[in-house]
């Protein structure tokens, strides 16, 4: 079932994390899944995308995203977040470059999907990633999709984080949310990739990856900062207008190379 602001789980989450500094620590331990036996903070990314020194590593794959336009009112506060993360949390968070800011619509083939055997049908599980990229591109090129133009999102000020440090987003209206989740289901049918969160995925803009655990003190500071950062974006951009979704390939988490824009149902222009 599509999730939006009135979803019961969202209300429970808001209630759970109410309360200033304690909320920051609670989110770090509970919402991010940190073990009670380890220092509180965002889950350290062990996928191999980054090294413990914070340097980006090769991690190839494809994805369907909508980039944050430089002209968007949300871009300036995202730049401020980047500067704040780099200045205050560089020992634990590897900040991603503003040129990479985007909202993911649907994750394609990548090392994580391969490890969980969520792979395009007809492509060998041990095939080079380029083979999976090409198969997904062919399937996406042959399909027209229903999605709004622009894609209108608002900042979700609820506590907690997605898989990586970022700003939660939600569709401006429940009706638009239904369209976006239907788009995810269509992309799942077209690519053959079946993520477990097909109808529960929380849209977000990632601004970094945790590369080292945080102390409790730093985690509290980070939780407070996160709430402030989300408010920066929400105040600057009450509605964020995203362009049409684009199939991209990547060699790492710092750059996403566009291949094609999803063809939209009811249009004649087949070009990106």
From TrEMBL:
Keywords: Signal. Residues 1-33 form the signal peptide. Pfam families: 2H-phosphodiest. SUPFAM superfamilies: LigT-like. PROSITE patterns: TAT. The keyword Protease does not apply. InterPro entries: 2H-PEstase_DUF1868, Cyclic_Pdiesterase, TAT_signal. Residues 49-156 form the DUF1868 domain. This is DUF1868 domain-containing protein. It comes from Endosaccharibacter trunci.
């Amino acid at each position: 079932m599509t999730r939006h602001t009135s979803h019961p789980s969202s209300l429970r989450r808001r209630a759970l994390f109410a309360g200033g500094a304690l909320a920051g620590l609670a989110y770090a331990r509970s919402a991010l899944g940190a073990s009670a036996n380890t220092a509180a903070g965002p889950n350290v990314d062990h996928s191999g995308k980054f090294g413990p020194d914070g340097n980006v590593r090769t991690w190839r794959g494809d994805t369907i995203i909508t980039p944050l336009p430089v002209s968007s009112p949300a871009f300036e506060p995202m730049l401020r977040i980047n500067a704040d993360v780099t200045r205050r949390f560089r020992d634990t968070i590897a900040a991603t470059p503003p040129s990479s800011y985007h909202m993911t619509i649907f994750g394609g083939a990548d090392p994580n999907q391969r490890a969980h055997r969520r792979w395009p049908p007809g492509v060998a599980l041990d095939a080079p990633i380029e083979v999976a990229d090409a198969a997904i591109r062919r399937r996406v090129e042959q399909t027209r999709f229903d999605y709004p133009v622009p894609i209108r999102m608002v900042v979700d000020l609820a506590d907690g984080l997605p898989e990586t440090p970022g700003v939660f987003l939600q569709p401006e209206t429940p009706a638009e949310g239904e369209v976006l989740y239907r788009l995810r289901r269509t992309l799942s049918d077209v690519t053959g990739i079946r993520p477990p969160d097909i109808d529960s995925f929380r849209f977000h803009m990632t601004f970094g990856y945790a590369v080292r655990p945080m102390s409790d003190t730093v985690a509290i500071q980070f939780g407070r900062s996160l709430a402030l950062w989300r408010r920066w974006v929400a105040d600057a951009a009450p509605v964020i207008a995203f362009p049409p979704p684009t199939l991209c390939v990547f060699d790492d988490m710092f750059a996403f190379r566009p291949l094609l824009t999803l063809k939209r149902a009811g249009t004649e222009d087949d070009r990106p």
